[in-house]
Design goal:
The radius of gyration is 16 Å and the shape is globular. By secondary structure, the chain is an alpha+beta fold. Helix 1 (17-28) crosses helix 2 and helix 4 (128-137) crosses helix 5 (139-165). The model is unreliable at 1-5 (pLDDT under 50). The N and C termini lie far apart (40 Å). It is built from 5 helices and 9 strands. The protein has helices at 17-28, 38-45, 102-107, 128-137, 139-165; strands at 10-12, 49-53, 58-60, 68-74, 76-82, 88-95, 99-100, 114-117, 121-127.
Length: 168
């Protein structure tokens, strides 16, 4: 998805320089980006789009190409994985302040799970194309983002590894 494409069930929220300060505040309130310098938060705000989705909206589907990740600013989404029985099973319920969909931005692989809004939610989307632009235009910011995403993925892997020990 690029910045100009509309997603089914996604409603663009605010646009222009007047909305930028709100986007900066949303970024600054997230756990992942809270310790970024304000100038980096302002720079990142230039590359994200803010959307609202209604309850029941499929944010992305397992197996499709991953072209964006998002910061969940408000609301809840659930992550679903299709089992061998063909039934979708809830893996986790994600609440505000969390990043979702980052694996596809980093590794370019298909989505490993589906994501569905369980209530009206506000998402800040960072597309793969925009992350590539950040790499070219603001490499220091790109490194900051990548370092935070690597730490996040490491924490998630450690958590899952700990949970798997219970089943051995």
């Amino acid at each position: 998805m690029n910045a100009d494409q509309a997603l089914d069930g996604f409603r663009l929220v605010g646009i222009g320089s007047g909305f930028k300060s709100e986007v900066c505040d949303m970024i600054a309130e997230s756990q992942l980006f809270a310790d970024l310098d304000w100038k980096d938060i302002q720079a990142l705000a230039e590359y994200v789009q803010c959307y609202e989705v209604s309850s029941g909206t499929v944010v992305f589907k397992e197996g499709e190409s991953g072209t964006y990740m998002f910061l969940l600013v408000k609301g809840e989404v659930e992550i679903l994985k299709t089992g061998q029985d063909g039934v979708s099973h809830r893996i986790v319920l994600v609440t505000h302040g969390k990043i979702v969909g980052e694996m596809s931005i980093i590794d370019g692989e298909k989505r490993s799970a589906s994501c569905v809004a369980t209530q009206t939610s506000i998402l800040l989307l960072l597309t793969k194309d925009h992350y590539t632009r950040i790499i070219k235009e603001k490499p220091v910011l790109a490194v900051h983002i990548l370092a935070r995403l690597a730490k996040l993925m490491s924490q998630r892997l450690r958590s899952v590894s700990g949970q798997l020990v219970e089943y051995l």
